[in-house]
Amino acid sequence: MNTHDTVRPARPALAPRTARVHLFAAAALAGLLAPGAAMAQDAYPSRAVTLIVPYTAGGGSDNLGRLMASGLARKLGGSFVVENKPGGSTNLGNELGARAKPDGYTLLLGQVTMSINPSLYKQLRYDVVKDFTPIIYFGSAPVVLVTSPSFPITNLSDLVRRMKDNPGKMNFGSGGVGTSVHLAGELFKSKAQVEMTHVAYRGSSQMVTDLIGGQIQMIFNTAPSVVPFVKSGQLRAIAVSGPRRLPDLPDVPTFAEAGMPSFDAPSWYGLVAPAGTPAPIVEKLNQALNELLKEPATLERLRQLGAEPVGGTPAQFAQFMATQQEMWAKVIRDARITAEE
Prior knowledge:
Blueprint: E1 3-7, H1 19-29, H2 37-43, E2 49-53, H3 60-76, E3 80-84, H4 91-99, E4 106-111, H5 113-120, E5 132-141, E6 143-147, H6 156-165, E7 171-174, H7 180-192, E8 197-200, H8 204-213, E9 218-222, H9 223-231, E10 236-240, E11 267-274, H10 279-292, H11 296-304, E12 308-309, H12 314-335
Parallel strand pairs: 2-3, 2-4, 7-8, 7-9
Antiparallel strand pairs: 1-3, 4-11, 5-11, 5-12, 6-9, 6-10
């Protein structure tokens, strides 16, 4: 069942490093020469805009999509309608976004699965590079490495040492094969050069229960999912990804502070449009969301959702997406992960 929610009103680009970045950047700038582009910008939006969210209503990703929709309605006027299209590990919503008319009136919540799925699924019916125009990297949710309080390890260096002394005997859980938190664990294995066993669950509830009970030793999960358990004392946080400590966990070091600066596995969120969307509309959306990210109320809401603000230009977002896709492709290839597992 679809969920609709209507919200009504109350550059210097980074130098591309790869051919894939060139394609993303070209998509971000597509439409500059389109007839009537300036007029489209002046009139936009003249009717309701649909924002596809490839997740069910009520979760953290949906909340971030609605934060963007309400902010755009306030900044640009008109209506921004959130339409939830879950299914197929976000592939259903992503495909609908790719196939939409490129006129600025259908947008898609971009998310980390857009970096993962091209390497995980053999036959996608959309191309992340060719079918989308990046608009803005809106925010990211850091990943936290957590253990049970009864587990006799309290810091990252001791944990890595124990895993090296006991190769393959420790395990970590995730909400499913190929999920971003599963791949975070695989990335950790690669960076730390350790062996541990992945235990896939059908969801996070039983996984957290087993972690608290000691059936598994650790999980890598997004901050909103684990911070309440850490603050209540049911779980112990070892390290957090990202450039800075979480305000809600000020005593927990970053991976860089703990001795692993190369590890970062954010669950990122942004806004994309179908390829060919007029550049003036892309820039208008980008400017509005960058302004939104400067508002104290937006920053507080992001903090409540366990996310960090980012912002920037479409070209910077294109480069980030390309880098992420290449990173996860290597993780998936090296760990020999397939969606059929």
